Amino acid sequence: MRGVRQLLIAAVALLCLHGAPPAAAEYGLKDLSLTFTDEGGNPVLAAGSHPFEMTTTFGVETEIFFEGSEEREVTTGQTKDLIVQLPPGFAGDPFAVPQCSGPDFATIDKTRSQPACSSDSAIGVVGVQAEFGSVPAGKFTPGSYTYAPVYNLVPPPGVAAEFGFLVLNVPVTVDIVVSQTRPYYLEARLKNASQFVFLYGSKLTLWGDPANPLHDPIRGQCLDAVNSSGELVSLGSCPFGGEEDKPFITLPRSCQGPLQALFSADSWEEPENVVSDTATSPALEDCDELGFDPGIAVDTTSTAAESPSGLDFEIEVDDPNLTDPDERAGSDIERVLTTLPEGVTTNPSVASGLSACSKAQYEESEKLAFDPAAGCPQSSKIGSVEITTPLLQETLRGSIYVARQRENEFGSLLALYMVIRNERLGILIKQAIEITPDPSTGRLSARVEEIPQLPFSRFHLHFREGPRAPLITPQECGSYEVAADLYPYANPTQPVRRTATIEVSSGPGGSACAAPSNERGFSAGTLDPRAGSYSPFVLEISRPDGSQHLSSISTTLPEGMLGRLAGIPYCSEAQIARAAARSGDGLGALELADPSCPAASGVGGVTVASGAGPSPLHVDGRAYLGGPYKGAPLSLLIVTPAIAGPFDLGVVVVRTALQVDETTAQITAVSDPIPTILHGLPLDVRSVAIQMDRPNFTLNPTSCEPKSISAQVTSTLGQTASLSQYYQARDCGALGFKPKLSLRMKGGVKRTAHPALKTTLTYPSGAYANIARAVVTLPAAHIIDNAHIGNPCTRVQFREGACPPKSVLGTATATSPLLDEPLSGPVYFRSNGGEHPLPDIVADLHGQIHVVLVGNVDSMRVNREVSRIRTTFARVPDAPVSKFTLSLFGGKRGLLVNKANVCKVPRRAIVTFVAQNNKRLEATPKVANKGCKGKKRRR
């Protein structure tokens, strides 16, 4: 059709020898008007009604031009493009009457200036003031028009509707498109008007109800289009022969302010100079009388509890009055606020492989509407949209994209972009949707405002289903209510509430309905359990779908499984506070780029799986060694940048107190509560896997006795599950056992003297089993002086750190390759509650950790000798110690007293060591004494 028009223009151009004289005045518009009238010509102001006629007029500014003595009134420019933006909410039905095909419109009966279109396709008349030729004659009669019928044409691709008419036998087409910017009004476009038709003005009348019999005398072929008297002349009657009587025009359903049509035009002489002016019609009335009865339907794609699910959300508008010429259409929907049930939350699994659409990409859709490489990326798509309207014969389809966090229309954490595309109709509609999660429960609300005033009967949103669907269903079976408040354009302050029900009818995977269980999965151990060797330690705690959410974890390692602290700096309290301060959304990336804790304090990693279904999202974090916390000597910092696909929820810091049993050195890790929700988004943690993979950090026991790794997992409902994993080191028999003990007395050697005693245990490094039990029996010449015992420290006093000074017997120091500094502290005589005849010797060792070494004191006979003092350390921690020194005071504070001159009696002790791998070593080391040096023992 456009090709025919261009051929006609080219043919006329070949006949022309010169062009129009340039205009002296600037090109401009005048006499603009927009009116809606009934059959009697009275104004129609009822919102949502179908007027009898709609008329727009415009004129082009003119000037007086003199050619010799001849005076001519000519336009100030030759119109090239004319665009009319109709008021928002103005609607037209391109299928109200049949459409005239391009070939029929191009077949022109020049004797009558009529195309070969059927009269049934006529939708109005147009009056034109124009002259044809290369130079305007300037002899038109002001106010007089040449009339022609206007036909509804088959639109070309990219155009929603098109109508056409003839001007001086030149075809003119006007495209009707939906604007691609808010507020999405209809736009009439006359592009590249003929350069050989000088347009002074026009008066276009479109029929609100083309089938009305009152239009029969001037319908299509019945209009005497060649009459130039300024009056419409009929050639007869052309009744409408179509099947339906449908309105062609529907007025807006809003009464907010006057109706305005913006006219914009430019000229061939200055196409870059666009002039604009507005035609105004009075505001519409009686909006409170318009009907408004939309309905909603909502359903999840899964009916199983706590399962990944999509969502179908539908708004239905049954408005038969929209297509009834005798009735007023109902109001459009201006705003929708929807709240999903509590328990329907976001699914972290959706973030796997997901990207987000930036604001620039969203806006780019306007420039490159149908370029698949432009606009929002496909990886950000999570759903689709369908819109059905009675004004079109096909469904409009589009996509739903995830908007970039904070960089969206609302500056919100969550938002969606809806983009509807129809290349054939040239329709591109965009709508932003704000999603607001409740910060405490994760309950989701959606807000859509300024919905385009385009009538629809069905609006369907579909969010994808599958293992990475965007939502999770509630944990328990039942009916859950969805509420939506819908606001009409006609009465924006009077919303209607509609509800729908979501059904959860089975447990996860189709199982029977049941309350959330406290079921847990647990695995733990070292990758290489060879005794006495270093190996990465791994632990994983998980929960299945349908179980209670994790709250906190307490784990106890087997005796002898230790961490090498030497050479590892702590993540300081200031650095920990720095990590915790990054909890705001968007700060996770900062933690990745600039970790709060130093790398040197790192001991491993953590992987958290979040989200329902078989494909949870995995997020990695780091584990750092920290200092004392909540009474424990050490702590573990789990720092996890919560970055899930395009979302950055900040940094999650979970601190775990590392308690060390003071008797066995057994480690128990007690975590702080695990966050369950961040910024309104439930984390839905499915598993926590820790990998302590720092080289030479986790040390296996040197005992191969069967042991276990135990855990206590507390749920958000306060229930605790006790878990256990079998553990046993291997190859203990390959470990050597070479402890060496030396004893030295210092002080008086005569009877009744009180010498000081220093015992030193040394142990080689390498593949050796640790000591499990040690028994030291002193020579018979040394006994305990009861007069120097004083008041032993009670256990209560010991726990409170309030032992009396006289209970202190000496000092002890232990050096371990696992620690930066030796452990040291006082040695007490401590009561044992009657478990043994004498109080215990207790070494209270402090440093990075606190260890209490208890020796039970009693007496024994060796052959026919008198009783000897024996100290038994029955339970020694399975920990490597390179040197251990125990020193007892002498003199007035000395516990030991000589029963004889020690230089004149045997001075050998009896020592028995038992290894963690059950190997034994017995020795009789000589007790050295400087006071006996150089003296010979009498025979």
In DSSP terms (H or I, runs of 4 or more residues), the helix count works out at 6
Report the radius of gyration as a whole number of Å.
47 Å
**Bulk shape:** rod-shaped
What ranges have pLDDT less than 50 throughout 5 or more consecutive residues?
1-23
Q: State the total count of DSSP E strands.
A: 60
Please, how many domains? 4
Percent of residues in helices: under 10%
Widest sheet: strand order? 59-58-49-55-54-53-52-51-56-48-47-60
- Which class do the helix and strand fractions yield? mainly beta
How much of the residues is beta strand, in percent? 35-45%
Short note summarizing the structure:
The protein has 939 residues and is mainly β. The chain has 6 helices and 60 strands. The chain has a 12-stranded mixed sheet, with no helix packed on it.
How would you describe what is shown here?
This protein has 939 residues and is mainly β. It has 4 domains: 2-281, no CATH class; 295-510, Immunoglobulin-like, CATH 2.60.40; 521-732, Sandwich (Immunoglobulin-like); 735-932, Immunoglobulin-like. Helix content is 5%, strand content 42%. The protein has a 12-stranded mixed β-sheet with strand order 59-58-49-55-54-53-52-51-56-48-47-60, with no helix packed on it. Mean pLDDT is 91; it is low at 1-23.
Secondary structure topology:
Blueprint: H1 2-15, E1 29-37, E2 53-60, E3 62-67, E4 70-75, E5 79-85, E6 91-92, H2 102-106, E7 108-109, E8 114-115, E9 122-132, E10 146-153, E11 161-167, E12 170-178, E13 186-190, E14 197-207, E15 249-250, E16 259-267, E17 275-281, E18 295-300, E19 308-309, E20 311-316, E21 333-339, E22 345-346, H3 359-367, E23 381-388, E24 396-402, E25 414-422, E26 427-437, E27 444-449, E28 458-463, E29 471-472, E30 478-488, E31 496-504, E32 521-526, E33 537-542, E34 550-556, E35 562-563, H4 573-580, H5 588-593, E36 602-610, E37 617-626, E38 634-644, E39 647-660, E40 667-671, E41 677-678, E42 681-682, E43 685-692, E44 698-699, E45 707-715, E46 720-727, E47 740-746, E48 756-762, E49 771-777, E50 782-784, H6 795-800, E51 808-815, E52 823-830, E53 840-845, E54 851-861, E55 867-873, E56 883-888, E57 896-898, E58 910-915, E59 920-923, E60 927-929
Parallel strand pairs: 47-60
Antiparallel strand pairs: 1-2, 2-14, 3-4, 5-13, 5-16, 6-15, 7-8, 9-10, 9-14, 10-11, 11-12, 12-13, 16-17, 18-20, 19-29, 20-28, 21-27, 21-30, 22-29, 23-24, 23-28, 24-25, 25-26, 26-27, 30-31, 32-33, 33-43, 34-40, 34-45, 35-44, 36-37, 36-43, 37-38, 38-39, 39-40, 41-42, 45-46, 47-48, 48-56, 49-55, ...
